[in-house]
């Protein structure tokens, strides 16, 4: 138990469906992340939020729409996905050390296994 | 674009044997992290190495950061079945930016 929870754990959706992934962190962190883990590719960073503001969008297609209503919650809204979007979607959180610098440790949730048919 | 090459991608050995996993890049990283991921779970941080040439030990696991901070290795002594899992290296190259290797899937047979 890392303090980061994700729901649902498994999701099957058609290409015309709209669904949302939810992530919640109980660690008091101020930064949250979405990653995609495919079978044949390294773990890829998708989005970064700091203090609810999006600070990184790693050229992610617009069919993925993140939302961060507060520092503890992060959503990933999905619509008109493609079969190649099937993957494990991981959420992570960390404590942004700002100007103090230093290494930040990212804590990952268990992921949502997504299958797009 | 920062890239991390991990090798081997798959490794299956007998209990009690030693092994080394490598993580190489042409880029310099401010730090390098090693994670372990089990089926149905997210990656869990094992160690962070920051200084070139740094060596850290975690029980039977030894982690080393290359002098030039471009590469790292993970050595496991007397592997146990409980060491089975996916081992990931990740290089930090900017604020909150990690680039991951493709992982080494390790199987320790009893």
Structure overview:
- The complex is a heterodimer of chains A (117) and B (110).
- Chain A is an all-beta fold and 117 residues long.
- Chain A has strands at residues 4-7, 10-13, 18-25, 31-37, 44-50, 53-57, 64-70, 73-79, 87-94, 107-108, 112-116.
- Chain A has no helices and eleven strands.
- In chain A, the strands form two sheets. In chain A, strands 2, 4, 5, 6, 9, 10 and 11 form a seven-stranded mixed sheet that branches.
- In chain A, β7 and β8 (73-79) form a beta hairpin.
- Chain B has 110 residues and is mostly beta strands.
- The mean pLDDT of chain B is 93.
Give the topology, please.
The complex is a heterodimer of chains A (117) and B (110).
Chain A lengths: L3 E4 L2 E4 L4 E8 L5 E7 L6 E7 L2 E5 L6 E7 L2 E7 L7 E8 L12 E2 L3 E5 L1
Chain B lengths: L4 E3 L2 E5 L4 E6 L6 E7 L6 E6 L5 E4 L2 E5 L5 E6 L8 E10 L2 E4 L3 E6 L1
Parallel strand pairs in B: 2-11
Antiparallel strand pairs in B: 1-3, 3-8, 4-5, 4-9, 6-7, 7-8, 9-10, 9-11
